[in-house]
Structures are given as C-alpha cells and as structure tokens.
Amino acid sequence: MPTSDGAGWPGLTRPEHSQWYIERFRAMAAAGKDLAGEARLVDAMVDRGARILDAGCGPGRVGAELHARGHRVVGVDVDPLLIDAALQDHPGPRWLVADLATLDLEALGEGEPFDAAVLAGNVMPFLVRGTESAALRRVAAGVSPDGFVVVGYQAARLPLPVFDTAVAEAGLRVEHRFATWQLGAWHEDADFAVSVLRHA
Known about the structure:
Largest sheet: 7 strands, mixed
Structural class: alpha/beta
Order of helices and strands: HHEHEHEEHEHEE
Distance between the termini: 34 Å
Radius of gyration: 15 Å
Number of helices: 6
Number of strands: 7
Shape: globular
Helix content: 25-40%
Strand content: 15-25%
C-alpha cells in the first residue's frame, strides 16, 4: 500500500486502488491469514452484545469479526466501493457511507450511543491532513461517556505528536498505548501505535 501523503483516501480519485484493496483482503482471508487481531482486542474490552462503531471500516473485516463475536456493529467509510464490498462479503452489521470528518451519526439514524469505536487499518493517516481532530471529535461524539475509542496505525504515516494534538483537540485523552494490537509494550522506536482513548 502506498504511504499516505495527507491528501485523503486514494480510492476516491482512483477507484482501481479501492478494488486492489478489496481483493487484497479477500485473498488474505481465502489464504487463511489472521485478520482478526484488532477485533480480538476490542472484543476483550467490552461486554458481550456491545454496540461498536467501526470507523473507517473499509471492506468490513474488523466489523464483521466483531459481529461474529456477538456485538452490534455499525461500519462507516467514505468510499462507496469499500462499503459495497462490505455489504457483499459481510452481511449482518450496518454499513454506511460517511466521511469521518463530517460524521453525523444521528442524521444517519444511529443516535443510540456506542460502547466503543475502533479505527483500524491506517484510518488516521488516510484522513485529509488537518481533519484528524474533527474526525476524532465526530467519532467520540457517538461514544458513551464511559466508552472508549481505540486507534491503530503505522506511526511513520502520521507523526504521533500530530495525532496526540488531534486527540486533545477532540476532547479525548490517551489512556493506554501499545506497539501492537496484541498489546506489545509501547516504546518510542515502535513502528506501530495502538492508542486507547477516553473522554477527557
């Protein structure tokens, strides 16, 4: 996958990129690759039957796994091609087209608070640069006061100081940070960052 340049998800201007992304994960699933690491972490942090927002859901692999584990999942993504793939491959959750930076869950018929939200698969670096705090604020607005937002991405794609500033501007705080979705201990040289965020 190409490195994000802050211009937003490339599939919006190059649909062939989205199709490549869809087929890539279909092929990995068919080959038996473990694609459930993010969902396992979120599943361990919530009660059974939790209401979970898969923000930047792509073709639905994380939300589908959470749904299979008994949770009520709503997935949103800016790319209609990815949402079409989620609808085709993963019936069960509710899949919606929406831009996280302008996300209005109530207008989409999702006014009930979520217990948690997850942004996996490098969602943050593929936001249009400068919209990180707006996206986190919109996502967090849909999460209950005692809920959480968990974000994981490759640290080289978006500097952590930029991310942490966006977290604070969104009215959130970093409760935990790990180097992997398997809770590897955080260290400053880690090439991946998984952050558990709570309302400040």
